[in-house]
Design brief:
single chain; 5-stranded parallel β-sheet; globular; ATP binding; nucleotide-binding
Length: about 230
Amino acid sequence: MSDQPRAVILVSGGLDSTTVLAMARQQGYACYTLSFDYGQRSRAELLAAERVSAALGDVEHKVVKLNLDSIGGSALTDHSIAVPEEATEGIPVTYVPARNTVFLSIALGWAEVLGAQDIFIGVNAVDYSGYPDCRPAYIAAFEAMANLATRAGVEGEKLTIHAPLMDLGKDQIIRAGTELGVDYALTVSCYQATEDGLACGRCDSCRLRREGFADAGVTDPTRYAGAS
């Protein structure tokens, strides 16, 4: 283990971040997984994050408590805003203001503590639902900032933000994960999953996930609420 480079992997418990964790492991990184209890609507994803981290052999799994629900502004953190169940134009109400910036900043801090020069995140510019913090320009800008704002960066230990899913469709992501042995039954992607992880089957995240499995020709292991 001591010979492996360390990496911090942002893990939400969903399909994309789980695939990224499998990719980082396959590339030889010692993986330190990081999740956030940020006041999100679906608590089931935190349990899923713990499951996938253990299943894929993390070194340590850390959950950081935040209260993004105290500022609201998103259907995922404010129960008075309904989760949309039809496609919408523009940036959807499921966008959580500054979420990836907050998450990456904390991941950056932990990476410095660990002596890790690599951070992995599962953002995707193809099936990204219009979120502005899932674009290549954003990742490049954050990486530049990270190398300006940290002791590691100033001392020449270049920090890299990896977003290996950036240009992949959901079907390509599922095929890649399947080849790496990912058990997607452990994951939860639904914006409004029940406490025991049953997916609604109607939200945008469920739609993208369902279509991805169909396009990949892979059996969808998702447990849907109301399914017989």
